[in-house]
Amino acid sequence: FSALLRHEGGFVNHPRDPGGMTNLGVTRKAWQEWVKHDVSEAEMRALTPEIVKPFYKQMYWDRVRGDDLPAGVDHMLFDIAVNSGPGRAVRFVQEAVGVPVDGGLGPRTLAAISDADPVALMGKISTTRLAFMKALETWPVFGKGWESRVNKVHDEALWIHEMGRIATN
Known about the structure:
This protein is mainly α. The protein is 67% helix and 2% strand. It contains 9 helices and 2 strands; from the N terminus they run αββαααααααα. The two termini are 25 Å apart.
């Protein structure tokens, strides 16, 4: 969660960002759906990591079944889910492991993830993620930052994987 927040930053309201008003990576629209009422700019600015943590867990971590994924892959899919949606994160990993791409993270997909080499899998997912982003019409505006994020998340995921491997040996 803390690694994710380093990528998300604080309050922004960029006119070209399709997410609109955002704080700690939480869009105003998503936050309004979560709290079930309209929120003001002041309320968006007042969000803290402690306030948004349950939102992130339920809306993103749980939806990509982070607790069921290998170390490193969990971090990567969580970040993709936040940045591009849980369904897209699942479709990226399904494509990478060669199972039917349906956006559902069921037993077949989990088994294929478990059987895959995590390092190679993370490389495939990062390549797919970056290709997706480069095809977006907002790439010229946000591309440099997005590419940096993809590379940093990939490096973090590799480090997390390695630390998990060392801890189990």
